[in-house]
Amino acid sequence: MSITNSDNGQPDDDVTDSVRAELARLRDSIDNIDAAVVHMLAERFKCTQQVGHLKAQHQLPPADPARESQQIARLRTLAESAKLDPAFAEKLLNFIIAEVIRHHETIARS
């Protein structure tokens, strides 16, 4: 791992080994969290695929605006209590919801 001086892009000799070790530790944690997020999203999409099949079997619409609104409100509250920007959480959920609806539409056509 190379740490560079932001002023000139050269290696920063003032950065101690302990700082490098702390950065490595934090980055390892970030990598682990990213992996967990990917696995959690995969599990979520497995469930929403099942919902899509159930909706298709019963001729239900791919989107459920009332449920989506409830989930957005719920996620915003969770984000606030977790000290995460609720607007960011809402954007993320809207992105996920759009993908889920796209999957449901595909399932309904098949």
TrEMBL record:
SUPFAM superfamilies: Chorismate mutase II (SSF48600). Residues 17-108 form the Chorismate mutase domain. PROSITE patterns: CHORISMATE_MUT_2. It is an enzyme of class 5 (isomerase). It comes from the Bacteria. Its EC number is 5.4.99.5. Keywords: Isomerase. GO terms for molecular function: chorismate mutase activity. It holds the Pfam family CM_2. PANTHER family: CHORISMATE MUTASE (PTHR38041:SF1). NCBIfam families: CM_mono_cladeE, PRK09239.1. This is Chorismate mutase.
